[in-house]
Amino acid sequence: MSDSCVFCMILDGTIPSIRIHEDDTTLAFMDIHPVQPGHALVIPKAHHPNLFEAPPEVVATTARTAARIGSAIQRALNPPGMNLLQCNGEAAGQSVMHLHMHLIPRAMNDGMTMNWDLVKGDVNAIEAIAERIRTELANDAG
Length: 142
Ligand SMILES: [Zn+2]
Description:
The chain is about 30% helix and about 20% strand. By secondary structure, the chain is α+β, with helices and mostly antiparallel strands. The relative contact order is 0.21.
């Protein structure tokens, strides 16, 4: 845990989040600044700043959860495409220094670039999407 880390504060509940999945080692929740509808994040519960400082098994368990969440988003929203994106360092667009993986549904010509602005989304709309993803997660074998 890191006292100043936004994601650690989400993990301990200090900052509220729209959670879609939690297990012993990872948490998945909706990005409150969605660059596209359905934008979700997967983080390890242990604080590691980035890919280079995290033990490989932490990266692996985070990726395993990301694959499951990505499949659930695909079933829930059926987007034409999806990015699994993992950023390391400010120059690469990392804004929270706690290892994380983005799942970003994509559409043709949706205008998204790698360096998007953080614009707070409509919480009710995000919660409605989260519920559709949770339903798909409940339907899979886990
Ligand atoms: Zn952290």
